[in-house]
Every structure is written in C-alpha cells, then in structure tokens.
C-alpha cells in the first residue's frame, strides 16, 4: 500500500499550508503535542532547516513554554532548561519574542555578538534563525521558530506562507484556550476556584478505579451555623468568608488531596492514595484546628466551627454515589449532635438510611392498609399497682423490614410532611379505643382512666391543632379530661410563642399536657413556669438504673422537688426494677410506666392486663 494523500510530502507552499491546516483541525489539548510535532516535521523537511520549535506564551507567568520541537532531542534533561523560560531571564532572542509583531530573521551576517553566543553554547559556527510570532487579538501569544546551521535566507513567498501557518496555529491555540476555560468553568466553583461537584465525582470515580485496591477516604465538611453568618454579615461578606474557609481547608490538607466545594458551605476532601478511617480522622482534626483561628472580614472577626463526616470506601468495588452520600449522612449526624464534631459513617447508619427510604415510600400506605397499629402501655399508681391510664405508642410491622421503631418512622414522617396525617391517625385511633373500652368494659376502664398520646413538634405548631383535638374528642364522645398530650421539652421551647398559644388552647379544652423526656432538654425553670403544662414525665434514661447510681438519684430528686414546687404531676417512665419503683415512691413520685409493670400491649392485651395486672408484688412505700 502506497502512502496516503496526507503522507505525500507537499510540493509547493499552497500544499504545505493546506497540510498544516488539516493536521491542526481536530486537535485538542491531549493531542496537541503529537499534532504539533507532525506539523514541525513537515515544515523542517519542506524548508530544509535543521530544527523547528513551537512555543506558547504563558502570560500569567510571563514565560514562554515549549509545546513541541522537531527533531526531538535525544536526551531531555529534567527539568528541561528549554521547557519554561521566563521572559525576564531569557536570552535576548527569547526576550524579544514576548511582544514580537512580525517575523524576525537573524542571519550570520546580522549579529556578530549573537553568533558568538550560539557558538559558545553549541559549538556551531554559524546559525540562521527565523522566529514567527503567533498573533491573536492584537497580541503575541507564542512563537514558531526555525534554526538552520549555516546561512539561510527566506524569500517573500516563504515568509508569507510562514505568516499564514502562524495564523493557523494561533487560531488553534485560541480555540484550545477557550476550550480549557470552558472546561475549567464546568469543573470549578466560581466563588472559590475549587473543583466543583462534577469534577469531584469524576475524581472519585478515577480514584476508585485506579490501583491499588484498598481503602479510600473522603471527608464531608460543613460549616456550622453558616446561615446565621450570612444573616449577620450580609451576602458579600458571607462570600468572602466562604473563600477564607476554602483557603483554611486547603492549607490543612496535603497537596495531593482534592478539596472540592459542592455549593453553600459544603466542602469535600478526597484523600490521595490509600487512606483509612484513622488517617481521615487526623486530617479532620487538622481542618478543625485550621478553623479555630478567627477569620477577619473587614472590621469583623468571625469564628465558625465545622462538622466533618468521614466515609471510607473500598476500591475498586465501591460506588461513588453511595460513598459520597455516606459521608453526607455522617456529617448530618455530626450536625445533629450539635456540630463541631467528626463522625465516621458506619454500616448501622447505612441500614438506617435504607429504612428511612423504605419508610418514606410506604408510610402513607401503611396508615391506610392497617400494618400500622397502636399499642398501649399502662400508667401505674405505684401505691396501688392499678392503672390510671395508658400511653398510646405507635407500632409498625413493615412487610420486609419487620418491626420499625417509632422513633425512626416518626422522624421520617416529620421530615416528609406526613407528620400531620400520622398524628391525626394516632389521635383518632387512641380516642376511639378509649371510647370503645369505656362502652364495652366500664367495669375495667373507669371514667378517670386517661389516654396519653404523643404529639410531634410539627403537630403542635400547626395552626389548627386545637380545633383538630376538639373535633376528635367530640367525634368519640370524650372530653378534654380524658386526654393527655405528651410533647417534648424541645418542642415547647423551640418556638415558645406559637407553642404556648396552642397549649393555652388545649388547656381551655381541659386537655392535660405532659412534658415528655423531661430532663434531657434545656428549658429553664422560668420558661416552664410560663407554660400551661401539668405533668412532667421523667426521662427513662434517669429511671432505668435508679437506685444504683448516685447521679441519677440526685437528678430525679431535683426533678421531683421542681414538680412539687410548681404544683406539677410527675410520671416516671422506664421503670424496669423494683429498686427503681421503690426509690421513686420513697421520693414522693407515685406514678410510673415501665417494663416492670408491662410492655406496651395491643388493645386486647391491655384490657386483660388491667383486669388482672401481671405485675407481681406492688412495691410498698418504705
Ligand atoms: P416516649 O414517648 O418516651 O415513649 C416511651 C418509650 O419507652 C416507648 O418506646 C416505650 O416502649 C419505652 N418504654 C416503656 N417502658 C420502658 C422500660 O421500662 N424500659 C425501656 N427501656 N423502655 C421503656 P417506643 O414505643 O419505642 O417509642 C419510642 C418513641 O417514639 C416514644 O418515646 C415517642 O417519642 C415516639 N412515639 C411513639 N409513638 C408515637 C406517636 O404516636 N406519635 C409521636 N409523635 N411519637 C411517638
Ligand atoms: Ca411519650
Ligand atoms: Ca419519654
């Protein structure tokens, strides 16, 4: 097979220009060097010179950078003295090329001094040099150079062709630059200049697929309380703050590690090479330390902590999306704990996430298809051992997940706007049950027997909540006195104004309000006093081991004292031992719930329990 058309040497200047144009056509930054070498080779052969080179200006660095040369040098030192040459330190020929406007030809007869230098450097007697500037938008962007040992002149046709070729190269250079910029914009965050999400995902993918197999770590970093910062400083300063944070993070990690910004106040660090949880934790600590110094913004100085989530993936089997989500989830957990914390993603968290997704998808239908149920736990008078009422507790037996904890799915419901629907369902079901018991078994369930229902903060803050409660009570022929609503401290204190309006409305209905999990929140006594609540439920965390630890004892004692001084009723939850029951009674707390008496039971079971309490001996007061 003979040479293809493009391999046939050009026989005139027109063919030469055409050849250069076709060679440059599809060039991108990855093929630039090979294509440029091919062009230089054709030029060297056509013009019968000894060597040729192509250099691009790097205006930012005020330097000229070697792109390609022909013929290639046999030995290229590292670093290459011809690679990047600063215009400031360059020899006069290079220095002159910075703003060169037209072809510069130097022949042996032109400059004795120059020839002398070349001779010293290369040992070549006489040299002819032609330097053709690449021009773009009125400025010089590079040079195309030819060297001939001995004398060589260039005629007008040749220099015309050289100018045309230089123009073709300059156009290609401008196109590559634009493509580079586009690529940069597509892969970088505008504000900080860091790689963006797209670049990060590509990098993580490459990290997972490149050897060696083994652990790879990433850190998800989230600035604590940034929204408050923006509200306080305004957006401009907020932006400058983010830039400063980006610099801090950059300074805390290794050069090979990638720092990307996902937007807002979210940053990700992908550690280079093999990295396990311990290494990631070390880097996380460094990032936290870097954030400890206040950041100065104009007149203000600001300090913000960061939350860090760590996720370790096994290359090459791990999946990028899962990996990043895991780190995201770990940082959310860190935030849930109050921020300024480092949390590593665990397989437990993965299960939780799977459950969350499953729950979200099937909760609504569960409300409708009956896989959701209400169980009832007796509230017991410690002095008599009899039930004064029950607490309604949701139960969900998921077809594939099995029993799902109410703590989990109530949280999901709140996060997905199902809380209202779920709450109404429980309230209605619990009230219906109480009415039914009273109707069917008045001998067991008397008129003072109360139904306690847990209310999520979302429900409490709904404007029509009091109306909803009134409606449900009326529907089942109950009064406010039959119902206890349990709310957490957190819910009433979080939005105190809205909450207390609702609580007052409930009080007008005669509904009793209990503060659930008391002792775990932060409410001050003053806040409590202002709220129309009637019952404190001592959190089970203090009760389970009561009598065995001095600390629980003193906490419970002070809660009892508090309730007495405010005239509030008390219920202790989580009574599992006789010792705890006796201790409570000794302190003057007479009402309790707990596994010692009964676990939460289905309606039928509860009725049986109340008819004949299974609890053995009722602990007697000392
Ligand atoms: P909670 O309101 O503090 O409910 C008491 C929890 O303690 C129940 O867990 C109950 O089964 C458990 N418990 C009772 N006695 C003992 C004991 O002696 N020892 C121990 N270790 N635990 C005991 P459960 O049913 O898993 O409910 C967990 C949480 O889910 C509840 O905490 C409540 O915050 C929420 N929840 C349950 N049902 C509902 C509901 O209908 N609506 C709302 N908003 N939340 C609900
Ligand atoms: Ca409760
Ligand atoms: Ca509780």
TrEMBL record:
InterPro entries for this protein: Biofilm_reg_signaling, EAL_dom, EAL_sf, GAF, GAF-like_dom_sf, GGDEF_dom, Nucleotide_cyclase, Rev_trsase/Diguanyl_cyclase
Pfam families, per database record: EAL, GAF_2, GGDEF
Domain GGDEF positions: 214-347
Domain EAL, residue spans: 356-614
Transmembrane segments: none
Protein name: Diguanylate cyclase/phosphodiesterase with GAF sensor
């Amino acid at each position: 097979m003979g040479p293809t058309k493009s391999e046939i040497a050009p026989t005139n200047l027109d063919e030469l220009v055409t050849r250069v144009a076709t060679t440059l056509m599809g060039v991108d930054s990855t093929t630039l060097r090979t294509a440029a070498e091919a062009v230089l080779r054709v030029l060297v052969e056509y013009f019968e010179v000894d060597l040729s080179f192509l250099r691009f200006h790097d205006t930012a660095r005020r330097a000229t950078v070697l792109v390609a040369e022909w013929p290639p040098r046999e030995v290229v030192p590292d670093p290459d003295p011809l690679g990047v040459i600063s215009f400031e330190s360059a020899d006069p020929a290079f220095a002159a090329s910075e703003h060169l406007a037209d072809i510069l030809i130097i022949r042996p007869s032109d400059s004795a001094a120059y020839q002398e230098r070349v001779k010293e450097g290369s040992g070549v007697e006489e040299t002819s040099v032609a330097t053709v500037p690449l021009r773009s938008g009125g400025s010089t962007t590079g040079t195309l150079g030819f060297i001939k040992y001995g004398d060589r002149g260039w005629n007008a046709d040749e220099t015309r062709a050289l100018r045309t070729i230089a123009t073709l190269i300059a156009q290609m250079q401008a196109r590559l630059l634009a493509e580079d910029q586009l690529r940069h914009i597509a892969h970088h965050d505008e504000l900080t200049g860091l790689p963006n999400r797209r670049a990060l995902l590509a990098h993580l993918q490459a990290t997972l697929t490149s050897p060696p197999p083994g652990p790879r770590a990433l850190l998800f970093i989230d600035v604590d309380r940034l929204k408050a910062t923006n509200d306080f400083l305004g957006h401009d300063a907020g932006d400058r703050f983010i830039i400063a944070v980006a610099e801090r993070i950059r300074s805390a990690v290794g050069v090979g590690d990638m720092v990307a910004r996902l937007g807002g106040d979210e940053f990700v660090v992908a550690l280079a090479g093999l990295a396990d949880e311990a290494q990631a934790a070390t880097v996380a600590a460094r990032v936290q330390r870097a954030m400890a110094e206040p950041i100065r913004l104009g007149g203000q100085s600001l300090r913000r902590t960061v939350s860090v989530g760590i996720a370790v993936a096994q290359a090459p089997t791990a999946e990028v999306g899962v990996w990043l989500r895991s780190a995201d989830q770990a940082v959310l957990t860190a935030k849930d704990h109050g921020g300024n914390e480092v949390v590593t993603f665990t397989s437990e968290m993965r299960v939780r996430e799977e459950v969350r997704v499953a729950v979200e998808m099937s909760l609504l239908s569960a409300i409708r298809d009956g896989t959701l149920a209400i169980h009832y736990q007796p509230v017991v008078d410690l002095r008599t051992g009899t039930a004064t009422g029950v607490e309604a507790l949701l139960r969900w037996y998921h077809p594939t997940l099995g029993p799902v904890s109410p703590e989990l799915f109530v949280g999901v419901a709140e996060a997905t706007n199902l809380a209202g629907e779920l709450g109404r369902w429980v309230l209605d079901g619990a009230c219906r049950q109480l009415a039914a018991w009273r109707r069917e078994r008045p001998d067991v369930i008397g008129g003072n027997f109360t139904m306690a229902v847990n209310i999520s903060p979302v429900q409490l803050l709904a404007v029509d909540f009091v109306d909803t409660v009134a409606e449900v009570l009326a529907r089942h022929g109950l009064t406010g006195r039959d119902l206890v609503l349990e709310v957490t401290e957190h819910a009433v204190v979080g939005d105190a104004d809205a909450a207390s309006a609702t609580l007052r409305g409930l009080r007008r209905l005669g509904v009793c309000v209990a503060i659930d999990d008391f002792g775990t929140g932060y409410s001050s006594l003053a806040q409590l006093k202002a709220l129309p609540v009637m019952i404190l439920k001592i959190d089970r965390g203090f009760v389970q081991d009561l009598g065995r630890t001095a600390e629980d004892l003193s906490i419970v004692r002070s809660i009892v004292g508090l309730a007495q001084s405010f005239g509030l009723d008390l219920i202790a939850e989580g009574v599992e031992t006789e010792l705890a029951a006796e201790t409570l009674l000794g302190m003057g707390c007479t009402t309790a719930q707990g596994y010692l008496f009964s676990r939460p039971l289905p309606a039928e079971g509860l009725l049986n329990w109340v008819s004949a309490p299974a609890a053995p001996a009722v602990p007697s007061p000392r």
